[in-house]
Amino acid sequence: MLEPPYLLYLGGAADTIAAKTARGLAVWRPEQCIGQVRTDPAGISVGLPDLTMDEAAAAGARTLVIGVANAGGIMAERTVADVLLALDAGLDVASGLHQRLADQPAIRDRAAALGRHLWDVREPPPGLKVGTGVPRAGKRLLTVGTDCSVGKMYTTLAIEREMRTRGMSCDFRATGQTGILISGAGMPIDAVVSDFISGAVEQLSPARDDDGWDLIEGQGSLFHPSYAGVSLGLLHGAQPDALVLCHEHGRERMRHMTHHRVPPLADCLQRNLEAARLTNPDVIAVGVALNTSGLDERTARDACTEVEIALDLPCADPVRHGVGAIVDRWAVCFGR
Amino acid sequence: MLEPPYLLYLGGAADTIAAKTARGLAVWRPEQCIGQVRTDPAGISVGLPDLTMDEAAAAGARTLVIGVANAGGIMAERTVADVLLALDAGLDVASGLHQRLADQPAIRDRAAALGRHLWDVREPPPGLKVGTGVPRAGKRLLTVGTDCSVGKMYTTLAIEREMRTRGMSCDFRATGQTGILISGAGMPIDAVVSDFISGAVEQLSPARDDDGWDLIEGQGSLFHPSYAGVSLGLLHGAQPDALVLCHEHGRERMRHMTHHRVPPLADCLQRNLEAARLTNPDVIAVGVALNTSGLDERTARDACTEVEIALDLPCADPVRHGVGAIVDRWAVCFGR
């Protein structure tokens, strides 16, 4: 699929959330990222050298990745112009925006003329099937959340890294555009036709008998009034053996929602376990990942301890503390 | 949208499930159906006169409705040929198959040349938005099910008829292709991109302040491993004030599933109420619709009584007994 090394396009992004995709790649695939392109020198940086398209191509870059999201997923005119420059310089281009590269006539025609590849990672594969719910071989861990944007992707990738460090065979299975760009494959689950949500996850994470685990990136929350359908279909399709609950400390209202409170952790975990039992009656929880970025070190530790006592599960901030405690519990529960 | 009177296309359908859409129209909109077209004279009939396309057009028919579903929703070659005959005879054509009329070049070109309309009712409207979960004005009733194909559409339409007979203002809101063809409008919820499930239902059933009720057709089941995501998004988008639980007596396995049992009625109702409270904390159940078609009269009555005692809700078979008892309970609960 995507060919590294990557050049990350930040455009004029002014904050880290707008540059979330580029940041994800820079954090998780630093060895594959050789530079960044900013249209505003005072804009956000992900800490890579600023390169022009030609400099990047000369340095060996293969693919320009549109690493910036904006309201509505629209492709700005300036972005279109810069994509054309990248194609001219010899790069393929990848994007996770709702608005597709292939739907921009100028981009499509230039890419065709030059023989470059365009990767619209938010485009589901053709021929998806409805889910079957038939138990399949292999073991799977799924991250679930109290809300959107609480750290499910980061946690899943951190667990992959930790397990691999311990010599275990496992694979991150991406379900969102940033995760897909990081791992080079995956299923853009929020872009799938609703009849096929669970079937798409069955396809993303097929039966495996090599003793390895699939680590599936969760999306949304069963308690989010916009996206809970996606979360439930994903949960059923994943047939998870293990759940890790993700939460941001102190968040009281659901993202972009003024009418909806973030659910209590215990209720959220209980509801996810109940729903998951439909396709895997043996599912268990193995830990809680707590985003404590707003807290000082001591308060963060106390917050995790409080959750550990309340839920009787290991709790850690993957960024601050790593996920060793969660993987320890997983190893004990599954005899690894 | 669709223009009656309709001519119902049954093709070579050999059983009533294949002809489910035609049957729904013949039962619920008999005054709009003037004939049927069968390619196999021994095939299923919905009790209408057999007409040719030309005879139907001469009798005033405006639209040929593809009233037959087949595996995969594929349009057979014979069907394509018959659609062309209908266009030639002066009819518009409507279809709820996955495979769209407009994607068949022969059909598309002929319709364009003759100025006929093609209605692919499984095509969602453009510009859908993600759900907001913001409480909206008006009252809504939603049918939910233990499984697919247990009578949710029939029950919802029966409640509409019963309420209107009592002089109440209410509107059936269709979410599946048969319901859309019956009511002439609606939202094909299983064809919507998963990000927009709840938003699509918010659009289908917008705020109303005329004291009337929206009666929303449910889909699937929270316990169906293929479709639960659709059911949950629909439930959240509907913000129902009242639920009616639908079930087929004696069904033990989920439709098309050998690994999944139909849930106990009480568990199913409880789980639906819990989930519905996310967007309407005041939701209540007002009755159970029990499909007893396999039972004799006495056993059917006993089965309903058993459910009434177990769930403390009125229970009736909408086909056998009507939905008067359910609407009675609804009227008491909502002071109508």
From TrEMBL, chains A, B:
InterPro entries: DgcN-like (IPR011669), DgcN-like_C (IPR035086), DgcN-like_N (IPR035402), P-loop_NTPase (IPR027417). Residues 44-124 form the D-glutamate N-acetyltransferase-like N-terminal domain. It holds the Pfam family DUF1611_N. SUPFAM superfamilies: P-loop containing nucleoside triphosphate hydrolases. Residues 130-327 form the D-glutamate N-acetyltransferase-like C-terminal domain. It comes from the Bacteria. PANTHER family: DUF1611 DOMAIN-CONTAINING PROTEIN (PTHR40690:SF1), GLL3100 PROTEIN (PTHR40690). This is Uncharacterized conserved protein, NAD-dependent epimerase/dehydratase family. It comes from Sphingomonas guangdongensis.
